[in-house]
Amino acid sequence: MADVGAAVRKLLEQRNLFLKTEHDGREKIVYVCVDDGASGGLPVGHAIGTAGGVWLAYARVPQGNYYGNAQVAVGLPTCDAAVRAVLDHARYADILRSVERSSGRAARTYTAVVDPGHAEWLATLEEPKGITQLGKGKVRFTEAAVAYLRNPPPPLSLFVEVKGDHLILDYMTYDLTPDR
Description:
Elements: H1 6-14, E1 17-23, E2 28-34, E3 42-49, E4 55-63, E5 66-76, H2 79-89, H3 93-103, E6 109-113, H4 116-124, E7 131-135, E8 138-142, H5 143-149, E9 160-163, E10 166-169, E11 172-175, E12 177-178
Antiparallel strand pairs: 1-2, 2-3, 3-4, 4-5, 6-8, 6-12, 7-8, 9-10, 10-11
């Protein structure tokens, strides 16, 4: 694995991402990939280590009606910092939704009981797709929605984070329970 610390490895695992590395003699390229069912996965960003020891980071980001790669950081001192920059910016919930649909398996869903105000707020989000308000504060999330909320784009009007099996909204923690 590339030179990344335990915290970045844990983020990769939580987001169902993995790294693959290439060397071209002068530069080291570390791809951050999502498992889309194809051999080798689909890159959602990459970091380039230059001969001078400086790292650059590129991530898959929305660009109007499509996704493209954009440089998101330059002059980073380590591979760890560059991969973290990719993780902070890469957007790939659409890929996860596509994988769910094409897999033929039932999509995994999660349920959380949250404050009714938070449930209402979640229902108003344009992205991610896959959040359903069930009433009385109960909310269902697809696997893709949970993956998206692990790394939501700024700015959202509330603090949102998913850590493990917990949804954090406005600094209140709720259990995410896998549906059977």
